Amino acid sequence: MRQKIVAGNWKMNKNFSEAEELLDAIAERLEQYKGDVQLIVCPPSVYLELASDYGEEYPLFVGAQNVSQFVKGAYTGEISAAMLTSMGVTHCIVGHSERRKYFGETDAMIAEKIKSLLSFELTPIYCCGETLEERNQNRHREVVAGQLSEALFHLTEEEMGEVIIAYEPVWAIGTGVNATPQQAQEMHDFIRRFILDKFGNEVANNLSILYGGSCNAQNAKELFSMPDVDGGLIGGASLTVEEFLAIRDSF
Ligand code: PGA
Question: Looking at the whole model, is its pTM more than 0.85?
Answer without folding.
Answer: yes
